[in-house]
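Take just one protein record:
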Amino acid sequence: ALLDLSGVHQITGTWMGSTTVPCTYVPAEGFTQHTLSWSLGRDSSVSTIFLRDDSGDHILPAKFRGRVSVPKHSPGDASLLIENLEMPDSGHYTCQVVWRSTDNSLITRELTTTVKVVKVAATKPIIRAAEPGLALPAGASTSLRCEASGSPPISYRWFRSGPAGTAQLLSSGAELAWPSLRPSDSGTYFCEAENR
């Protein structure tokens, strides 16, 4: 059928992680997206959490600000990304899209997905070791990437071994990059991964 929303009935997200609640449609000629909204139903109350209209994107409840978003430049994709999931984010999420047709009539479609936030067993980060020893020519560009499995969120720090067992903190990201290597960059580097 024309302008049908597709998604899933139920989705499970991990506490402190992120999840995308899918809601997509195939854009049809002669119909322009007028408004797009997401509402959350819990117990007996329903509240609008996201609204996109002519004036832009509006995130209504303060507790969702900075945590929810909808793709900006992909026509037909109305999916809701929720980051840093909290236990009370569980509930029934309804995607509602209203289109305006060339004769100015409005068409509305809705799709509801149940989101369940679960706590996974907390696990310590485990770093996958890279190949030891890397020989590169001066002037080359390279990067070291630290990857750990474990309960999110995981933060990373890169250090470089200094004299007499000291360590110098280089970056607080998963990747350490050199646009152009110098001989003085030779040394031993190590990564630390940390979660709660």
About this structure: The chain has a mean pLDDT of 90. The longest strand covers residues 106-118.
